[in-house]
Amino acid sequence: MELVLEFSVHNQVVMFIGEADQVVNNALLGFYVDTSCLDEVLKVFEVMPQRNVVSWNTLIAGLAGQDRPSETLGAFRVMQGEGMGFSWVTLTTALPVCAQLTALHSGKDTHGFDRMHNRDLTSWNTMLAGYSINGQINEAWALFDEMIRSSIKPDGITFVVLLSGCSHSGLTSQGQRLFNAMEDYGEQPSLEHYACLVDILGRSGKLEEALNVAENIPMRPSGSIWGSLLNSCRLHGNVPLAEIVAKRLFQIEPNNPGNYVMLSNIYANAGMWEDVKRVREMMAMTRIKKDVGCSWIQIKHKIHTFVAGGSTNFRRSAEYIKIWNELSNAIKDLGYIPNTSVVLHDVNEDMKATWVCEHSERLAAVAALINTGAGMPIRITKNLRVCVDCHSWMKAVSKVTKRLIVLRDTNRFHHFQNGTCSCKDYW
Ligand code: ZN
Ligand code: ZN
């Protein structure tokens, strides 16, 4: 029913506007990707008079979602060829699929790209990104050195990839030095590079410095720059600065629920419940709804989806309860205590603990534990950023089950193994 409706909207858009504008086209692309209508995705994409990074990301997500690795990599290359640049989202969507081309899975194995005959700049950048998004920053640096030794001139993308890697691995001074050295390689920093620098400084706790950079960027800063700074304020529990940053952010992105949720989490961590309430009221007034958390796993060629608080039958099943109780006891012995400050609602602690336990990535992890053999790695994809408590839970579960758990959230890959995460708790 909905699908029919949407097709007729498309027809109307084409009839009355003639050429639908970019925003409408991107929304249509997104809709066709969500409904797995890849032919329609390609049709809309073909005829779009103007494409931006969002259009490309949507196309790549569509191809990646249909398990078409060579076309995904092809689109990624054309995108770069058109000088489009790319975002972190592009990388995290395209790279895992591209890695399948070599039938290899872990980040280290993206070195399989070494076998590509044509090691052009794109291949170098793709390999670098493979290391970088998987938190293997030392490998990325080694590869960068090799690239320079081979007289390959790095471009803007190379620097985005390396700077992002530095930021995600907490390499502050190395990242700052690289940013300052860009001009020596003939590259002018663009907005993306400034975004990385703000993130590098913010994550390491140099929040004032980060704010100073953000305020003096020669271009108009994007919402994502202020968003990353707000996340840094969350990491370091700096409420006064978070309020300054949130004000800027709400002006640029008044309808992004993630920003409100993050600010309210910052208040919750500081025990400022009146302010948590105020942010919730702000969200209610502007009719902003928090996105529902959703995670996916693949078991024997089939994708299984889990929604936060959902999958009731599964949660009531004997096998779920058995594994859940075993896990809960084992991780409690390790010292895991639920951190319920991430829960927005000011209800009692037991209730909060229950809500956190029902986050979709945990349901997915338990399902994977039940349905895959001992020692098999577990791969989970999530539509939102992983919360602090699920992150601790995954670390503990990776230790007691002796499993590698790879969780890809909207921000990055987390490799949980033997009680630690590749992000070193920076995310
Ligand atoms: Zn969670
Ligand atoms: Zn992590």
Shape: globular
Please state the structural category: alpha+beta
Helix coverage percent = 55-70%
Q: What is the CATH topology of the largest domain?
A: Serine Threonine Protein Phosphatase 5, Tetratricopeptide repeat
The main pleated sheet reads as: 6 strands, mixed
Query: How are strands sequenced across the largest beta sheet?
Result: 2-1-3-4-5-6
Mean pLDDT: 80
What Rg do the Cα atoms give?
22 Å
> Total domains, how many?
3
Give the DSSP E fraction (strand runs of 2 or more residues): 5-15%
CATH-assigned homologous superfamily of the largest domain: Tetratricopeptide repeat domain
Overview of this protein structure:
- With 427 residues, this protein is α+β, with helices and mostly antiparallel strands.
- The protein has three domains: 110 residues, Tetratricopeptide repeat domain (Serine Threonine Protein Phosphatase 5, Tetratricopeptide repeat, Alpha Horseshoe), CATH 1.25.40; 165 residues, Alpha Horseshoe (Serine Threonine Protein Phosphatase 5, Tetratricopeptide repeat); 128 residues, no CATH class.
- It has 21 helices and six strands.
- It has a six-stranded mixed β-sheet, covered by helices on one side.
- The longest helix has 16 residues.
- The two termini are 40 Å apart.
- It binds zinc ion (2 copies).
- The site of one zinc ion has 5 residues, from loops.
Summary of the model, kept short:
The protein contains 21 helices and six strands. By secondary structure, it is of the alpha+beta class. Strands 2-1-3-4-5-6 form a six-stranded mixed sheet, covered by helices on one side.
